[in-house]
Amino acid sequence: MKILIITLLNILISTTLYAQDKTVRFAAWAGNENINNWIDTFVSNELKENYGINLQRVPINDAQDAIQKLIRDKRLDRTTGSVDLLWVNGENFKMMKDNQLTWKPFLYELENAKYVDLKDPTIANDFGTEHEGHEMPWGSAQMVFIYDNAKIKSPPKTLDELVSWIKSNPGKFTYSAPPDFTGSAFIRQTFLNLIGREKYNNLASSTSESDLKTQLEKLWSLLNEIEPYLYRAGEFYPESVSKLHQQFSDGTIWMTMDYYPSTAQRMIDKGIFPKTTRTFVLDEGSLANTHYVTIPFNAPNKEKAIIAANFLLGIKAQASKLNPTNWGDFSVLDLNKLPMQDRTVLQSVDLGEATLGLDILNNSKAQELPANYIPIIEAEWKKNIIQN
Questions:
Q1: Which of 58, 101, 152, 234 could serve as a FRET partner for 130 with CA atoms 20 to 30 Å apart?
Q2: pTM of the entire predicted model
């Protein structure tokens, strides 16, 4: 009986402390100093000053580490965890959803959610997984091609034009080898542009691996067709996008690519890319994906986590995050849903000459394929391109 009373007292004390807790523990990937600094200064200061919330950034190398801990918490029935907000997307969120590690569809309770197009497939589907409000869209990324307009006056507008340019400029184009993220994205990007949006969207909503592999035959045919015209005739594919950027910087190749539309401007500002560097997307569309924050099932301070999440989705945070000097991460807010004043705030952020305008990027967005398709495509690429 004594042990039971002590246990109940401890639970009561713990519950009371968390009820009075003003701290929000934000578990976020810590691999970028600009992002870390933005969270530790701007976000932290704003939450403290306007909401009395103490933001504690919990640095992680991979969201999967936090998810494995949540799985253990669930198994051991730990109702009070150590994280209030978690930065997540893709396969990691799917794992959370499959294991019921999220709290509830809190997105629909956020005041700022009304400024997001929740029907946009690049927002509603997290690499093929419908989030159903269990995570909040936080920022977006999109595939762009990067070129030097001192060397290329008129960049290609379609996949056919890109193929023609590659053949007309042998050795001046290549892409990084999967599983590098950007190289893998280029392959999916080319797949989208090759088969068209309708067939691509059908595959994105399908679970048929046989249908996928049938359609992929056209992709392998095209990639084998251009291989002799790539850098070193396709005998060597750079292992990372950073190597690709280095080759572009020293003039070995005349085009590179990135899944962040602001990368070119950031590289110009660092003196790595020439000032004449610009970006373009193909008329057939460019891949886009969204990253999110979620509230775990056992977050100790859910009430304050909702307030912090709503702030992160607001115009002030979204505009600050968009600024390349802070982060350069693109907003998930829909320009058509924003009040004119807020729309002006977002559009007035100086993205630099190398970055495409928000309207151009938004109009070319195309959703990603389901996450489980990606390793299949990468394995098939190796079999059909490298080992062919």
A1: 58
A2: 0.85
